[in-house]
Specification:
single chain, about 600 residues, alpha+beta, DNA Primase, Chain A, DNA primase DNAg catalytic core, N-terminal domain, Dna Topoisomerase Vi A Subunit, Chain: A, domain 2, five-stranded antiparallel sheet, five-stranded mixed sheet, 28 helices, binds zinc ion
Length: about 600
């Protein structure tokens, strides 16, 4: 069970949070009218349909339908619970959540994820103090010095060390009263048949891995000698998902945004070396292939140029071919930078310095030209060599979905190897999947959508709700006429009732209602209706109300007529149903203290009835 956070604290945090600032941490926004638009971080798209309205404190994506307030955004972005999102923002804006809420008994009720963050944080503190403050840490300090790492960089990235032995961390965590099952769940402690417990990381330099909010989600460990495995990572846990984590991103995000360029390296030391020498726009993959989620995370930080950095041609060729579909699906291009043998990024930057690195990075080739060049280098330009080059490039070119890009690559390759373009095209043709159409945005199936009206009056009811959300002065008008109680559509009715009951600040109503919404569909519907522009003037709003009430009245009339017909035909079953419907309708009107006459004379007239 989640920990209870008092309503007023939630409000304080919500008021302190700047939704524009929070969203901008990962999404580039451009002002457009009273909104800010950007590429949706939650689905793939080429044209922005993600909108933020800072004055109402809400966001909404017209592409995939997600929406809500600042809490919903953080929950979705970081995959966390509501209380966690409140706490994340509280920390960010320096708001303290009442002390008693953090008592030991309350702590036990904290979600598992939060407990895991806490364990990781404890462990990080332990590893760090061993590295910096203990005699045992000297060997690791010397090792880092030898690799050219400064104390400042080790400090900034919270590096640590754990000496050789089976239970250094286990004993430390027990001493901190951390339950063993939790320590085991964090992946830091391993057990054999549930009894013999031992540390996962032994005699290793430790690299804490953080999420975007700087919480420690896992660890990487590297040996100091030649023993194997050279690198070891935390297993996946409820807080650590490798395909969604990039080492260093929480620190380098700002540089990525400023340069719009990212260098993607493979190792921890590669990243630290580049960063230390001023190449701060860098992230490291964590022993996994680059995923679409990685690319998307980087795009959200404003990256438009991706440079994959490798220390050998073989590694580059291998990874490049695999990553074509990944980049393509996210509509971005990537370049490949292979450093001259025998250098890795770490040794390269120490030998040649950052300026050289930058200029090499600028000269880096796109994935396809890079693969073509390396195939030519490998096979040469003899007749057999050229055939082998075409053979190697067939599947690569077949993977390029954009037909214009593909034909340009084919022309380029044909020119490079001195072969007729048509002949190359013919060879490649068999590798182009037949069904391949134009690249489309990711399908939206399986996601809860914005509510689609189900009733006869749904469209008008939707407009009335939008009107109340955007023109708070209309709320009183609607209340006076009890309009919401006529609503047939259950979703619009529940939102309408929430608005009627709302008594707070009108500017933040939409944002607060999304917190109160009980289900995802309602939340999305509120954000969609509150953020969308309705081109209404006040007069039109009044007309809309009038039209709606008139239609409901007509409906009542037609009901009476249908009842008469059913009586004539003696259709008992239909008759019962219609009478019931009519009773419901008049009950609503009566509850609202309205007669039909009163509605017509109420002064909200002026429009045409439908
Ligand atoms: Zn979206």
């Amino acid at each position: 069970m989640a920990l209870y956070i008092p309503e007023d604290v939630i409000e304080t945090v919500r008021n302190a949070s700047d939704i524009l600032e929070i969203v901008s941490e990962g999404v580039q926004l451009k002002k457009s009218g009273q909104h800010f638009m950007g590429l949706c971080p939650f689905h793939s798209e080429k044209t922005p349909s993600f909108s933020v309205n800072p004055s109402r404190g809400i966001f909404h994506c017209f592409g995939c339908g997600v929406g809500g307030n600042v809490f919903s955004f953080i929950m979705k972005r970081d995959g966390i619970s509501f209380p966690e999102s409140v706490r994340t923002l509280a920390v960010k804006y320096g708001i303290s959540i009442p002390e008693k809420e953090m008592s030991p008994s309350a702590r036990r009720e904290e979600s598992e994820r939060e407990a895991l963050y806490a364990v990781n944080k404890e462990a990080m503190g332990y590893f760090k103090s061993v590295l910096f403050k203990s005699d045992q840490g000297k060997i690791a300090r010397d090792y880092l010095k030898e690799r050219g790492m400064t104390a400042a960089i080790a400090e900034e990235f919270n590096l640590g060390y754990v000496p050789d032995g089976w239970d250094h961390l286990s004993r430390y965590l027990s001493g901190r009263k951390i339950p063993r099952p939790l320590a085991e769940k964090s992946g830091l402690i391993v057990s054999k048949n549930g009894e013999r417990f031992y540390d996962r990381f032994r005699n290793r330099i430790i690299f804490p891995i953080c999420d975007m909010s700087q919480r420690v989600i896992g660890f990487g460990g590297r040996v100091l000698d030649q023993s194997l495995p050279k690198y070891l990572n935390s297993p996946e846990t409820p807080v650590y998902n490798k395909s969604r984590s990039l080492y260093g991103l929480s620190r380098t995000r700002q540089a990525l945004r400023e340069t719009e360029t990212v260098h993607i390296v493979e190792g921890y030391f590669d990243l630290l070396a580049l960063y230390m020498h001023g190449i701060k726009n860098v992230v490291a993959t964590l022993g996994t292939a680059l995923t679409r989620e990685h690319v998307r995370m980087l795009s959200r930080c404003g990256v438009t140029k991706f440079v994959l950095v490798f220390d050998s041609d073989d590694a580059g060729v291998h990874a490049a071919a695999r990553s074509i579909p990944v980049f393509q699906k996210e509509y971005v291009n990537a370049d490949i930078l292979v450093l001259p043998s025998p250098h890795d990024p770490d040794s390269y930057i120490r030998t040649f310095g950052p300026e050289h690195f930058r200029s090499e990075s600028e000269k880096a080739l796109g994935i396809v030209p890079f693969l073509a060049d390396s195939a030519i280098r490998k096979h040469g330009l003899s007749i057999e060599g050229r055939l082998a080059v075409i053979n190697d490039m067939k599947p690569v070119l077949g993977m390029v979905e954009d037909s214009v890009a593909r034909s340009l690559y084919i022309r380029d390759l044909a020119h490079k190897i001195g072969v007729d373009e048509k002949a190359v095209l013919e060879k490649v043709q068999e590798h182009i999947p037949e069904t391949q159409g134009p690249v489309q945005d990711e399908p939206r199936a399986g996601r809860p959508q914005v509510h689609v009206q189900v009733s006869r009056f749904g469209d008008m009811e939707r407009q009335i709700v939008a009107m109340m959300l955007q023109y708070p002065q209309m709320i009183e008008e609607c209340r006076n006429h009890g309009v919401v109680e006529y609503f047939e559509d259950p979703c619009f009715k529940s939102i309408g009732r929430m608005i009627m009951e709302y008594r707070g600040d009108m500017n933040t109503m939409a944002s607060i209602l999304t917190t109160r919404a009980l289900d995802e569909e309602t939340r999305r519907t509120i954000s969609a209706l509150a953020i969308g522009d309705i081109p209404y003037l006040y007069k039109n709003c009044v007309n809309l109300l009038h039209q709606y009430i008139t239609s409901r009245k007509k409906m009542d009339n037609s009901l009476s007529q249908r009842i008469r017909l059913a009586e004539e035909r003696n259709d008992q079953e239909l008759l019962i149903r219609l009478i019931h419907e009519k009773n419901m309708l008049s009950k609503t009107m009566k509850n609202n203290g309205l007669s039909q006459k009163k509605i017509l004379n109420s002064g909200i007239g002026g429009g045409k009835s439908i």
